[in-house]
Fold:
Amino acid sequence: MDPILRLEAIRHSYGDHFTLNIPELGIQPGEIFAVVGPSGAGKSTLLRILNFLEKPQQGQVYFHGAAYTSGNLPIELRRRMTTVFQQPLLLRASVWGNVSYGLRVRGSRNGHETIRQALEEVRLAHLAKQSADRLSGGEAQRVSLARALVLNPEVLFLDEPTANLDPGNVRIIEEIIRRTNQERGMTVVWVTHNIWQARRLAHRVALLFDGEIIETATADAFFNHPQDSRTRAFLTGDLIY
Structure:
C-alpha cells in the first residue's frame, strides 16, 4: 500500500541548529501513527511539515504520491486534513458556533445534523448554547476536536491534545479517536510525549530524538521488542537528553 503522506530527504533548521533530519518517513492510509520523544526533539515541527503548515528548507513532502509545498497545495487537498493543537483556539461564540465554523467557511448550509452528532460524540450536546469562554480546559479541547471531526478530514493531526487534561477528558478523547479511526478509516498522526497513550492507541510508533527518527515499528514491536538501544532507554526512562 502506498503511503498517504511521505517525507523524503527532509532537513530543517532554526538558526544554526538542525531541528529535523529525516531521510524518509511514510504514513499509511487509515493508521494511527504516533510520534513520541522528549521535549525539544522536533515533534511539533515534524507535524507542521507533514500538514503543510511549514515548508521544509530541504526535501519534499508527498500527499497521495504527488509533491506539494505549503505554498502550492490546492485548497481542495488542504481541506482534506485538519489539526487539533495542544491549546484549544476557540472563537468568542457559543459551543455550537465554534463547531459549525469550519462548515460555514466552506459554504455548507445543511450541517445541523452533523454538528449535533459531533457534539453528542464529544459529550457536549447539553452545552451547545453555552459561550465557549465559560468551558473548562477539557471541555474546550473536546469542542476543538468536534470542530475538526465535523469536517470529516482524510487526515487528522493531533499535537499533544491531551497534555494538560485530567484523566476523564483524556479517556473521552482517546475513545473518540479510536472509534473515529475504526469507523471512518481516518488517518491519524498523533504527536505525544505520553508513551502509554501511544501504546494504547497507535498502530505504529516512531521515536523522534534530536530531530532524527531513531526507530519506527508496529506498536507491539516498538514497546515489546525495540531494536535500538536509545528506544529501550527512552521506554525505561534512562535516556538522558
